[in-house]
Write a structure and sequence with these properties.
Elements lengths: L2 H5 L12 H16 L4 H31 L4 H29 L4 H8 L1 H11 L7 H20 L1 E4 L2 E4 H5 L7 H17 L1 H21 L5 H8 L7 H29 L25 H15 L1 H12 L3 E4 L9 E5 L4 E8 L4 H18 L5 H4 L3 H14 L4 H5 L3 H31 L5 H15 L9 H4 L8 H5 L4 H20 L1 H14 L5 H8 L9 H15 L6
């Protein structure tokens, strides 16, 4: 990596389509060299060279993805993403041969000493998720998933003479004026109602492709393959099932109570889906400025939180590693990615003037700070598993609480109450999305209509308070259409809830002793992905969410806090 590359700003990062023929030839040559290695040093050299030749291609894929997310109508990057999706499975085919030889190397013991046993666990897990027979299926899966993204990013509705996309409309679904909320919620629901057939069709294709791949690889269905693709080596579907049971028994009753308090607080006879987003009669808290104003305050916040976060945020701001404003042609959602050629995290979001702007900024900054802190590791250890990665992001949301006055001014306490209440209420929804996916992939023959009916049935178990007030597409079980993870990242969603339970533990530790709590957090970030989930919990001195009673213990201090706040004054 040249110094010139490191000094560039994001707008100067140059995309060049990867030369896949050369990359494939290089990987094959390195595989031969590994097979013929006479010493462990020669074997290590092949691994290091492999990282060099794949790093550039991976960086270009990430850069193309970012550029395509920023403008889904940019034809150049749209075509590049199509090229990547259609051709990168061929790279995977040769990469898997190198990995197989690496795992079976006569120098394995020495390689484990050099790189750690966990690298081999990850590789062995990965080898169970791929063989050349599924290449065409992977290409088709990627194409169909892109259909979903394009479909939703192209949807808009007229609002006061202006065409607004779904993200922009969602701002009005949180308006304190009930008529405005109702109108915006109905328009958003209208989009999903109009697109039901297409959304069902896309998902049906995805489910059948994934089921077909699983069966080709010798699995009963996609569930086990999905867990392996997520890199889960120290827990399984049974563990997750018992964890979801804790949520139903412990969290659902708390959420029912909080929803009833909300109903009384905003003065309604009944709480409908239109009213769920509004927590206070005076309206929800909102940041008191726009993007540039918020970034200035974020800079102050991270400069005061720790020397490490100051260095990180200065780097991000200096190199323009954010794209935050909602635009009509942007992809939905928010994410953080890593551009290894430039050693740069990148944060993507869709600010819309709501509380979510500050939450997504601190959340994605948690991801970015972690990868910034662990970017010197080998590529397989730069990021941890998804459930571990979400601990960094969700905990960062809580570690920044003392600075929320900068963003919300006199509404800061209102924000804090709103934020942690929503975090609690998220757990049942996250578990619902996970159980729904288990049902879908265990029963791939279900029709789209049966899937939606099953979702509605599960919704009544996890969100018994929910009243759709006759909104047809939602009454028929179509709420999950808006959850892009269901389409794009199967079985990822439960990771948010696991991380949330861990973040609650950090919240409690931080209130008792900030210095010790943040030292634990910093150590976790700097450990990167060198260990699997349960071992990373030990690094951070966090309790295992799968053990019965952990959730109850984590949320008891939160209940005490919520009971101590007179939310009627907000």
């Amino acid at each position: 990596m040249t110094k010139d590359n490191l000094d560039l700003k994001f707008e100067d990062y140059k995309y060049v389509r990867p030369d896949l023929e050369k990359l494939i030839a290089d990987i094959r040559a390195l595989t031969e060299r590994l097979i013929n290695a006479k010493t462990v040093d020669e074997a290590i050299e092949t691994y290091n060279e492999l990282n060099k030749v794949t790093s550039d291609a991976d960086s270009m894929v990430s850069l193309a993805h970012v550029k395509n997310s920023i403008d889904t109508k940019d034809e150049f990057y749209d075509k590049e993403m199509q090229f990547i999706q259609e051709n990168f499975p061929k790279v995977e085919e040769v990469s898997v041969e190198y990995i197989r030889e690496f795992v079976n190397s006569k120098f394995r013991k020495e390689l484990e000493e050099k790189f750690g046993v966990y690298l081999f666990q990850k590789y062995e897990n990965y080898l169970l998720t791929f063989n050349p027979s599924i290449i065409e299926d992977l290409v088709e899966e990627a194409k169909v998933v892109m259909e979903y993204q394009k479909l939703l990013s192209s949807c808009s509705k007229e609002w006061n003479g202006e065409q607004l996309n779904l993200t922009q409309l969602s701002k009005y679904s949180q308006d304190k004026d009930a008529d405005v909320r109702r109108k915006a919620t109905n328009l958003i629901s209208e989009v999903y109602d109009e697109q039901t057939e297409k959304l069902d069709e896309i998902y049906d294709k995805i489910v059948k492709i994934r089921d077909r791949m699983a069966k080709k690889l010798g699995y009963k269905n996609f569930v086990e393959l999905g867990y392996k693709k997520m890199g889960r080596v120290d827990y399984n579907a049974k563990d997750v099932e018992s964890y979801r049971k804790q949520i139903v028994e412990t969290i659902v009753p708390i959420c029912n109570k909080l929803r009833e308090e909300q109903r009384k607080r905003i003065g309604l006879d009944k709480l409908t889906f239109y009213d769920e987003p509004i927590f206070f009669k005076s309206g929800n808290p909102a940041p008191h400025g726009e993007k540039d104003w918020m970034l200035e305050r974020a800079e102050k916040m991270y400069s005061e939180l720790s020397p490490e976060t100051k260095e990180f945020f200065d780097f991000m701001k200096r190199k323009n590693l954010f794209d935050l404003d909602a635009k009509s042609t942007k992809a939905a959602g928010g994410y953080c990615t890593y551009l290894s050629n430039w050693r740069s995290p990148f944060i993507f979001a869709n600010f819309n003037g709501t509380t979510h702007d500050v939450e997504v900024l601190t959340h994605e900054a948690g991801h970015a700070f972690q990868v910034f802190s662990s970017r010197d590791y080998i590529p397989e250890y730069t990021w941890p598993g998804m459930e571990s990665a979400e601990i960094h992001s969700m905990s960062m949301e809580f570690f920044t609480w003392p600075w929320m006055d900068l963003f919300f001014e006199e509404e800061a306490d209102k924000f804090r109450y709103n934020h942690i209440t929503h975090a609690l209420m998220f757990l049942p929804y996250g578990a619902l999305i996970d159980e729904f996916q288990h049902v879908v992939y265990e029963n791939p023959e279900l029709s789209p209509k049966e899937r939606r009916a099953k979702y509605r049935e599960l919704e009544k178990k996890y969100l018994p308070h929910r009243d759709y007030d006759g909104i047809k597409v939602l009454e028929e079980g179509g709420f999950w259409f808006r959850q892009r993870h269901v389409y794009q990242m199967p079985f990822y969603y439960i990771d948010y809830t696991l991380a949330q339970v861990c973040a609650f533990q950090f919240w409690n530790k931080d209130r008792k002793d900030h210095k010790t709590a943040f030292a634990d957090y910093l150590r976790l970030c700097k450990t990167g992905g060198t260990k699997p989930f349960l071992q990373l919990l030990d690094v951070a001195r966090l309790e295992n969410p799968f053990i019965n009673g952990t959730i109850k213990k984590a949320v008891e201090p939160i209940e005490e806090y919520l009971n101590s706040v007179d939310a009627s004054k907000f």
